[in-house]
Amino acid sequence: MSQNNHVKIEVADPSALGLLGLAIVTFVASANKFGIVSGVSLVIPWAIFLGAFVQLIACLNDIKHGNVFGTTAFGGYAFFWFGMAMGWMIQLGVFGETMKAAADPKAFGFVFLGYLIFTLYMTIGSIETNKTLLIIFILIDFLFIGLALSSFGIAYHYTHMLAAISELLIALMSFYGSAANVLNKTFGREFLPLGKPLGIFRNSERNNIQLDKSPISVEIFNK
C-alpha cells in the first residue's frame, strides 16, 4: 500500500527584508561618513549582519522565485558588505599588524569602480521594476562615484560628501521601500505606492520582474 505525503511550502517575497538590511547598514555607514560616528568599529557588525547576511537571505529566497534581478541585486550587495567588513577589520589590525601595514586603501577604489559598473547595468534593469527601486539604484550609482573618486583622492572633500549624502538618501528610500512592501502585502492593497515601471524597454504588463511579488507555493510529493 502506497502513501502520498503532500507538503506545501509558501515562499514569501523577500524584498521588505532585503531593503531593511540595506536601509540599516547605509544609515549607520552614512553617519560615519558625516563624522557623526567616529571610526568603523561599530559599523562592522551592521555591515556583516544587516548589509551582508540579511541581503544574502533575501537573495536565496529570490532564487526560489526564479527572480534573476532580485537574486543578483541582493546577492551582489550582500557580498560587497562581507568584503567591506573584512577590509575594515584588516585596517583595524584584527588579522595582525602585517596585513594592516600592507593594506593599500586604493584597493577599495577599484572595488568601488567595479561595483559602479555592476550598479549601472542593474539601474537599467530597475527601470522595469518600480520607481522606488529605480531611485535607490540611481542613488547607489552616485554613492559609488563618490566612493571611487574619494578613494583615489580626487576632489576628496566634495566626493566624500557626495558619497555621504547619497548613502543617507539610499537609507531613507530603502526604509520607504521596505515599509511599502510590508504594508502593501499586509493590508492587501496599495498603502504606500512603489511607482509603476517606466515600460521603456518592454511591456511592463507582461512577465514583470518586479521584486514586489506574491508568495510562491512549492509543492513536494513523496510517494
UniProtKB/TrEMBL annotation:
Stretches assigned to coiled coil: none
Keywords, comma-separated and alphabetical: Membrane, Transmembrane, Transmembrane helix
Topology in the lipid bilayer: Multi-pass membrane protein
Record lineage: Bacteria, Fusobacteriati, Fusobacteriota, Fusobacteriia, Fusobacteriales
Species this chain originates from: Fusobacterium mortiferum ATCC 9817
Top-level lineage group: Bacteria
Annotated family: Belongs to the acetate uptake transporter (AceTr) (TC 2.A.96) family.
Main location: membrane
Protein name: GPR1/FUN34/YaaH family protein
